[in-house]
Amino acid sequence: MTHSFLLEIGLEELPAKAIVPAVTHLKEKVTSHFKDSQLAFESIKTFSTPRRLAVKVEGLKERQADKTETVKGPAKRIALDKEGNWSKAAIGFTRGQNASVEDIVFKEIKGEEYVFVEKQIKGLTAQELIQQLSPVLTSIPFPVSMKWGNHSYKYIRPVHWLTVLLDDQLIELSLFDVSSGRESRGHRFLGQSITLAHADEYQDKLREQSVIVDRTERQELITNQILALCHTNNWKSPLDNTDLLEEVTDLVEYPTAFSGSFDDSFLKVPENVLETAMADHQRYFPVRNDNEEAAFLPHFIAVRNGNDQSIDQVRKGNEKVLSARLSDAAFFYHEDQKHSIDTFVDKLALVSFHEKLGSLYDKQERLTTIAKLLAPYFELTDQEAQSIERAGMISKFDLVTQTVNEFTSLQGEIAGIFASERGEDPIVSDALSELYLPKSMDGALPQTPVGAVISIADKLDSLLSFFSVDLIPSGSNDPFALRRQAMGIVRIIKAFNVSIPLNDLLESVTETAATVEIKAAYIQKQSAVIAFIKDRVDQWLSTEAGLSKEYDIRKAVLESDQNDLVKIIEAASVLKSKKGGSDFKAVVESLTRVSNLAEKAQDNLSISSDYFETDSEKSLYEAILKAEQLNVNGLSVSDKWQLLSDMHPLIDDFFDHNMVMSDDASVKDNRLALLSRINTLSSSVARFNALVIK
């Protein structure tokens, strides 16, 4: 016999973005609880609205299976006295296992006999296991938890009810200062409380009270309603804004989409300002014409948490709110139009970037310096190269505009728009609009070379600056989003496939430090910054390059002597592709042996043919010279691998005919010098002794 199990936590309205992670965690932990308890079930489904988190388990078994467990006790010599009577130890052991001495059997382990009894363990019922779920409910991770009123618990919002049913049976739980019951609650304004006779009534009973508790169904309703409005009005679907759709889904219990309008005079304001005001501030969907022009229209679509009753009044209320919001946006935009870019730039000196790192103007100057050092690594046209300094020196001006002060998410975009309106070179205005890209770990990247240069420069300055004053991320604490910025550097460099030796670049940046103290701090933190960026490369290789299980490859390339991110990524790709090859194991074993012995070599050892004792030494030396004549640093990683692969028979022959650690110190140093030269080449690809060879 199987059962349906329902668990619902009823709360005050939750933040929309907290709902899916919370109910997903709840599902995972309930699943783990039953699986760990060996209580089988057929399926588990989540339900959620702003006022509830719930799971429903179908096909839940009646109880755990009974099982027999063999328990080991004391040794036989301790269990029996000299007369063969049971000792207190034996009697106490059996009593503790709810058995008797008649149940004892002896088994030999490593030459000695021990007492064993078979312990019968009766399986717990589903009800008993459900009553153990309290820790699951209290441990749901939320962005913020706090105490509410006189309640003793900490949670994201106050808990008002707890519904726990196994079929038609109420399961008693006391938690969050409430006791479980059969009651759930309908829509705050359109519904009433309900009493559930059975767990299977859950969805239908709540639907009667204007709650669509199935999130997928609710989102489909919203989608279909919006598409219907678009079809009626010949608008392009705005549902490509999936983030807004996800958020709106978690803002309502019973959705009704409707359209509204605003004064077309607001269309003089930049479209992204209007979009941000509508989507980010009001959670409205902006709309466009459904044609090639896709013109921005003075209309919007909103989703009401309720039915269509008095929808005209609701529409007018939303239009009024949006009009006030757009009036503010238009005012800020038009006020900013009264000032030149240079006026804004001058104001940057009055605004602190960070108390330990100077003003925004200082930040802008550092960014520009780094951008000029970065530029030669990119294949820029003369016009692009000449635009670098201008783009850098006005890159932060929009941060002191009223528009960005109101719409902070538009930093960079507003700079690009204002620069274009004021006649700046399109190369400059496009670059400014890309300065803060990517805005998330997987967000859109700069598309222009100059945009890429100043974006990397800005992020690299932030890393070096914050590290230099010991404001380094630790654990989950990253207030300046340095991990995201480091990942941005990695992704941009990879996208543009530009080779930048980070150590050389950071050394050049260090030389430009404004003071001796800053220079010293840069020098001290340089290696830490490189390691921090390499950690993001490791993350990228794991998630984007399909190397999540190839820990040894990631470790080998990241611990190489290579500081060019593109070549590190290329090396990982080459090693992954070669790993299944017939000669991979032999090549890696040879290079591992080289690496291990090269570590014993003193610095700056030279090679002299006078100390060669075998032809294998001479042949290997000739191969090394030939390789070095190829300008190894300019070779692709694939070519380097081929070079090392071709060299490996000579390396094996060298090891077969020579004792590297010779008693003759000169011969030993000469052979170590040979291996060091090979290791210099191989370690620019990977630290081969980190690879796991099977």
Automatic annotation (TrEMBL):
InterPro entries: DALR_anticod-bd, Gly-tRNA-synth_bsu, Gly-tRNA-synth_heterodimer. GO terms for cellular component: cytosol. Residues 590-678 form the DALR anticodon binding domain. GO terms for molecular function: arginine-tRNA ligase activity; ATP binding; glycine-tRNA ligase activity. It catalyses: tRNA(Gly) + glycine + ATP = glycyl-tRNA(Gly) + AMP + diphosphate. Its EC number is 6.1.1.14. It is an enzyme of class 6 (ligase). Keywords: Aminoacyl-tRNA synthetase, ATP-binding, Cytoplasm, Ligase, Nucleotide-binding, Protein biosynthesis. GO terms for biological process: arginyl-tRNA aminoacylation; glycyl-tRNA aminoacylation. It is found in: Cytoplasm. Tetramer of two alpha and two beta subunits. Belongs to the class-II aminoacyl-tRNA synthetase family. This is Glycine--tRNA ligase beta subunit. It comes from Alkalibacterium olivapovliticus.
